[in-house]
Structures are given as C-alpha cells and as structure tokens.
Known about the structure:
Strand content: 15-25%
Number of helices: 6
Largest sheet: 7 strands, mixed
Helix content: 25-40%
Strand order of the largest sheet: 3-2-1-4-5-6-7
Bound molecules: 5-O-phosphono-beta-D-ribofuranosylamine
Oligomer: single chain
Distance between the termini: 29 Å
Amino acid sequence: MTKKKRVAILISGRGSNMAALIEAARAPDYPAQIVGVFSNRADAPGLEIAAAAGIPTAVRSHKDFASREAFDAQVQSILDGWRAEIVCLAGFMRIFSTAFAEHWTGRMLNIHPSLLPLFRGLRPHEQALAAGATEHGCTVHWVIPALDEGPAILQTRVPVLPGDTPDSLAARVLLAEHQAYPKALAMVARGEATYAP
Ligand code: GRF
C-alpha cells in the first residue's frame, strides 16, 4: 500500500466524528493516519477521547489572539509541526481567514449535517423539519473560504420520520455522519476524490 496520508482533525466540542475517523484509521489498510487533534476550546470533550487513543493534541484559544489571521497562523504552525497533509474539520466552530482557507483548499474537508446546499449554517435539523423535508442527511465537502460551501465529496441520506424532533433527527443523521466521514476521507487519501472548483 502507498504511504498513509497524514491527517489532522480540528474540533471544538464533543468529537464524535473525530472519534469515528480515529477508529477507522486504526485499520491497517486505511489510507490515512491521524497525526494530531487541535481544539480552539480547552474544555472540548473530544480532546480526552483523542488523548486516550494516543493521538497528540493541541489547544489554543482564539480569544488569546488579536486577530483571526494571528490565530490561523498559530493553527498553521501546529499543523506544520504535525506535517499534516489533509485537515478534517469535525465540529470546528471557527471561520477561517481567507488566506488560511485558500492555503488548504483541496486538502481540507468538513462535515455538515444536511444535504448541502440545503440548510446551511446553524440548526440544520430544525431547518429541515421547519421546511417539511421528507429526507435529510449529511455532506462531507471540500472547504473553501465561504462557509458551508465547496463541492460535495459524499452525501448520505436518511429519512425524516413522523414525529421527529430536531434531536431525534440529529441522532439519525449523526450515525450516518460516522459512516460518511471515514469513507470520504479514505476516498480523498486514495486520490479517488479530488478537488475541482
Ligand atoms: C456534527 O453534526 C457535524 O456534522 C457538525 O457539528 C457536529 C459535530 O459533532 N459540523 P461531533 O463533535 O463530531 O460529535
């Protein structure tokens, strides 16, 4: 097998998608290895999961930096230290400066819990229910400077069921996310999915 791609994961919270990626990457034939997990929040529960899995972690609060650019430069130097080749955003709640996003374009992925371009931004499950959607799902997509935009790599659909609440729908989508993200990262790491603007 060709050399595993070095992947860093950026989180801000729970880290269940991060955990799914770490778990998938344990398989000997998985084409990527997780070389570090970064959080902009010291209290992100995902940090402990990463540390318990033996993955290096780093934390910097964006509040300690004078500008978005200064924070992003710090993140960049941490990613460089890990020699990351691909960045996976997994519940990372920060918008990047254009320069950072452009630097990683074609090498940075995100997962959003909706069938983009539907229901961008916050509370996508509430948005889906309010719109009367009969199906919903998740999208793994390339990250470009605009929020929740960038071409899709993989989408997974789930049904919206009678009586669904935002929470019940989110739980169903989350299970799909945990399948979709490792699959999409494998496609990218193998060069089967490449960025085309
Ligand atoms: C997920 O629903 C993801 O799609 C969205 O934020 C949530 C993060 O959850 N971007 P987790 O931290 O991966 O558990």
